[in-house]
């Protein structure tokens, strides 16, 4: 029985998926040259591909540049006051809204900066905040 179970497990987890995995690996390696990735430890490679999971939200606040706003404007103070009261999950949802990802890029938070701009809309009460994810700009009506 042990031999049967060992052979069956080997077939299910190794032999049956070997051809599809080799096809996937060959195609993946065309777009992403894996030879250069050997210098990374698995955890480091995961960070390079996925980004950082943890975020220092106060550091994120320090990285912001303002367009048509000053850091001392009441709208900005209100924004950060509300932001810092959010749960961790909601903060990550904001990050995904802003950048398209709920993670900080592998380069780290010290190089991650975004912009908050006043879109100068005539009636800001009829406009919701919106983002330009490519440029990392949050348009925040007053």
UniProtKB/TrEMBL annotation:
GO terms for molecular function: ubiquitin protein ligase activity. Keywords: Transferase, Ubl conjugation pathway. Gene3D superfamilies: Hect, E3 ligase catalytic domain, Hect, E3 ligase catalytic domains. It holds the Pfam family HECT. The keyword Transferase applies. GO terms for biological process: protein polyubiquitination. It catalyses: S-ubiquitinyl-[E2 ubiquitin-conjugating enzyme]-L-cysteine + [acceptor protein]-L-lysine = [E2 ubiquitin-conjugating enzyme]-L-cysteine + N(6)-ubiquitinyl-[acceptor protein]-L-lysine. Residues 1-142 form the HECT domain. InterPro entries: E3A/B/C-like, HECT_dom, Hect_E3_ubiquitin_ligase. The keyword Transferase applies. It is an enzyme of class 2 (transferase). Its EC number is 2.3.2.26. This is HECT-type E3 ubiquitin transferase. It comes from Tinamus guttatus.
């Amino acid at each position: 029985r042990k031999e049967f179970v060992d052979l069956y497990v080997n077939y299910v987890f190794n032999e049956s998926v070997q051809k599809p995995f080799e096809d996937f690996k060959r195609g993946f390696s065309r777009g992403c040259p894996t030879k250069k990735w050997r210098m990374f430890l698995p955890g480091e490679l995961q960070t390079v591909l996925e980004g950082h999971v943890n975020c220092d939200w106060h550091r994120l606040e320090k990285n912001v540049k303002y367009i048509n706003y000053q850091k001392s404007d009441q709208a900005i103070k209100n924004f950060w006051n509300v932001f810092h009261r959010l749960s961790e999950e909601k903060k990550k949802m904001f990050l995904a809204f802003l950048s398209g990802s709920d993670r900080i890029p592998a380069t780290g938070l010290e190089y991650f900066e975004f912009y908050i701009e006043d879109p100068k809309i005539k009636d800001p009460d009829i406009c919701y905040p919106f983002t330009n994810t490519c440029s990392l700009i949050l348009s925040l009506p007053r």
